[in-house]
Structure formats: structure tokens, C-alpha cells
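[step 3/7] fold_predict: job queued, chain A
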Amino acid sequence: MLITHYDIRLFYKCSMLLYLSYHGPEDEMSVHPILKTRKRDSQSKELTFKQIASRIKGTSIAIDNAKRVINQSWIGNRSYASKVDKLEQTNINSSDFSIYVPTFFRNNARARKPLMMEGTFATYILSEFYDNPVNYFIIRSKNGDTEYDVENYLSELISDLPLIYKLKSGEQSISPNYTRGCRVCEWRYHCRNLAADTLDLTLVSGIGKRVKKVLFSHDITDIPSLATADLSTLKDEDLLSKDLEYFQLQAKSLMDKKAIIRKKMSFPTSQIELFVDVEGSSHHDFVWIIGCVIRKNDEVEYKSFLANSPEEEKEMIVAFLDFISNLGDDYKLYHWSAAEPQYFTNLVDKYNLPRNPVHKIQNHSLDLFDIFKEKIILPIYTYTLKDVANWLGFKWNEPLTDGATSIILFDNWYLRNDRKSLERAISYNSDDCKALVIAKDYVVKSLS
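[step 4/7] structure written:
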């Protein structure tokens, strides 16, 4: 059986994802609309062993002939194979000796763990089977070339290869770690159900693979054992006491299916309340909507500021800042997470606009996400606005899975002039703002 760069990437993204990609029940897959299967991934998985072997042979011939640049090369043997965007010959110490350095083309130069290990895998193959002792790889982006040393990752890769083999072959299965990153995975429902059946620790918000491993070392293996654990016996340096208290309260809340109030707080009163949600198009690099529910004297109105194209973005942010300025000083702006204030700062800087209006907005803003995370424990797995508001009884009129799906709808409008998709995306933004109203009213009632 052949282990490829595709398997390496999946394993370090999520070991469960690797296993399910080959052995998961296909009828339980649910592909999220935001997921775009990359061409190189699908090709790598669908190529036969014979086809890969033929490509490896072609690369070997090019190396034997000392070809300076080898594009779209496959390297490997009967056990391991990796596709590399480009192999480039580089002189080392003398003109008589050169090596081939694997190069990957990416939009940005940052090497997250899956790509770091994929690059390490390529250098391992080159060093082991091509007498090519290379210890770094290159990411080529629009900002130039960035070199990454693999020395600190090679031993981890080598020790993980037997497990990767067993997961791909089906000799070994694995339990899921259900985290925030699972929300757009095609196996999200399958893994969530598996985790729920076993009351897995990663259902507790904030517990990932690392914390789960530490808790396991203390014989805390599921949510019930965490809910009843004696925290005074946990002295592991990898766990902070405040995190342990939060994790245990979250476990108790999940077991009892009840909210837990940690701290009370007082809320400022204001004549006008604004509930703001901003959506940007990462594909096209601009903010396309600033949505806002305005509540004044128990009257509620939704207002949106729209940019149909990048050329309208400046006009949109100027209109929104003018709207805020005309409200005076007796208002409070509520949002979910730090993203919204950062959007405003970025737009002001992008168009060299005065910063004072944004500073004023920040002074009048309150992050509801922070309040929930610090003061209220809910029996939910993740603290997204959708999860929180759904638990509070709010239902979105637009049946989208999450905010990421609205990006697809906007793309349909922006690229295909589909007006109905734009209307659906605006409707979803409107519901996001209304969900903030529900969340704010709940915290005021619960914490005051």
C-alpha cells in the first residue's frame, strides 16, 4: 500500500479525517458548500498505483539527466510517493554538487502543520531514495520564496508513518476529536454523533487533542469523569487551574443540560442599541455587507450597508460611519467576537479615513461572545452565535448551515449576477443581527 502526500496532509489536519476518507460510511458524508475539493487532492487520490509509478519514473529520469527544474514532479518508491509543484536544482558548497529542493506554490507563505509535514515528507523521500540530502523546502507565494527547515519535524513524521499506514489500510481505527474546526468537514455529523455516543472530552468547548491527552493521563476519559473529578489532584503543568474549572463546569452543564451562571455583571443603559454583523468575501478580498439591527424604544429595524463590488467598499464604510456619527453618544453597539471592530479598523486604514469614528465605536461596543465565554456556561459544544442562539430558541429563516454558506451565496451574486442568492445572503445577515438581540437580552436577564 502506498502512502502519499495527500495522506500526510489529511493525517496532520485530522487523523480521523484520514481514516474516514478511506473507510468512512459514504452515506453519512455531508459536504459543506464552502469546501472546494482541490484538483491536486482529487487527482492524487484517484490516480492508480501504476499511474503514480509512471510519474515517479519520469521524475527519476529527469533527475538522472540533471534537469535543472522539474515541474509537477512525483517522487517516491513502492511505499511512499509525493507530488511536488516544482523541484529545483540548487548548488551546495561547490559547483560540483547540487541537490533538488521541493517547492510548493501557495497563496501565502505560511506553513501550517499539514503543509509543514507534507514538505517534510518530500524532503524525507528525496533524502532516503534519491541520495539527495535536502533538509528544507520552499513555499513560493506572491511575496516571494520562504524556506522551511524540517529538522524539528522529521522524527515526528518517521514515528507517525506506521500509524498512518494502519489508518489508511484500516488495520486500526481511531476515535474522533470534535472541535470547532470540524464545523465545515464533510464528516462533521458522523464524528459529532460518535463523540456524543461516547461522551468524548472534546465535546467540551476548549478541549482539543492536547488537553484530552493530558486529562487521559489523569484517568479522566469522558465527560462524566470530568464532571466529577477532584480538581485538586490535577497538578499537571500543561493545565491551568482556571481552565480546569471552566472545563468541569462545561462538563456538568452538558450532563445536566442546564446553563450555569458563573458571574453577575451590570449592563450599561442606552437609548439606542445596535446589533451589528459584518460579512466579507475572502475570495474577492472585500467587505460586502455591514448589517445592523437598530432597537430604539422597543422598535426594531434592520438596516444594511452593501458593497456590490470592491469599488463600492469605500462608499459603504463611509455611509456606515456617517450613520453612526448621526446617532450621537447615547448608543451601545453589540457584536459577536472581535472580528467586527477589526473590520472597521481595517477598512478605515485601507482607505486612509479618519480613525476617530472607529475609536468612538470601539468605546461604545460590547462583545457578547466574551460575556458568554467568561460568565455563562451553556450545554452546547461550541460557542458560535448560531449554536448559542439556537439553544436560546432562535431560528434562522434562511436554512443555511452557518455563516460560511453566505459566502457561497454572495459569490453567486458577484460572479453570476444571481439576485435571489444576494437576497438570501442579506436575509441570513439580518437573522444574525436578530440573533444578537436574543443573546443580549438573555445575558441581561441572567446576569443582572
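[step 5/7] annotate
Residues 419-447 form the longest helix (29 residues).
The first strand starts at residue 3 and ends at 4.
exit 0
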